[in-house]
């Protein structure tokens, strides 16, 4: 298990750092000004496929930035509010996103050897090493545990994956 469920992508790191987290993927570009609500880290553009969802503490995977030059300001505000994504992975570089990832100060990777939108799905566990430009995707969620946050004994038991803790039962 483990390695059979992982895919490694190689690209160009823009803002260094190493983080892991759950992926939030969209095929829609993201508008900063009027497209996100920075205090909650939510997409608010009404026709966006992630409308109403929060990117806080997620690995945000998206094609790129659209809209005005307010993109960087809105993502900077999300960082100040503690609601920024953990990392950004995207396809298309422009001046909005270049400045945006710098002021957001989260690891960011682009120019990957495979289209991340074809490889990464929402809920996959992703390790972003923007120092080396490497993205490791574990399909189906966190290795050895549930999708999302820290693995608990209850999550281990619920998944039935190796390492499962059996709470009070002798099988």
TrEMBL record:
Cited SUPFAM superfamilies: LeuD/IlvD-like (SSF52016)
Which Pfam families does its entry note?
Answer: AcnX_swivel_put
Q: Which stretch is the leader sequence?
A: none
Map out region (Disordered) in residue numbers: 138-171
List the Gene Ontology MF annotations in alphabetical order: lyase activity
Bias category Gly residues: which stretches? 141-151
Q: Which UniProt keywords apply?
A: Lyase
What is the protein name stated in its UniProt record?
Aconitase with swiveling domain
Organism of origin: Plantactinospora soyae
């Amino acid at each position: 298990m483990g390695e059979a469920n992982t895919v490694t992508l190689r690209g160009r790191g823009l803002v260094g750092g190493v983080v892991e987290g759950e992926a939030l993927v969209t095929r829609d570009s993201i508008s900063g000004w009027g497209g996100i609500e920075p205090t909650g880290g939510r997409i608010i553009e009404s026709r966006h496929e992630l409308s109403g969802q929060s990117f806080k503490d997620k690995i945000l995977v998206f094609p790129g930035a659209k809209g005005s030059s307010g993109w960087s300001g809105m993502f900077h505000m999300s960082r100040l509010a503690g609601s920024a994504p953990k990392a950004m992975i995207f396809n298309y570089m422009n001046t909005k996103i270049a400045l945006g990832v710098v002021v957001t100060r989260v690891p960011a990777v682009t120019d990957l050897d495979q289209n991340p939108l074809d490889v990464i799905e929402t809920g996959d566990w992703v390790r972003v090493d923007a120092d080396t430009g490497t993205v490791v995707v574990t399909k189906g969620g966190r290795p050895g545990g549930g999708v999302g946050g820290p693995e608990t004994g209850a999550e281990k038991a619920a998944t039935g994956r190796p390492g499962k803790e059996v709470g009070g039962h002798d099988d």
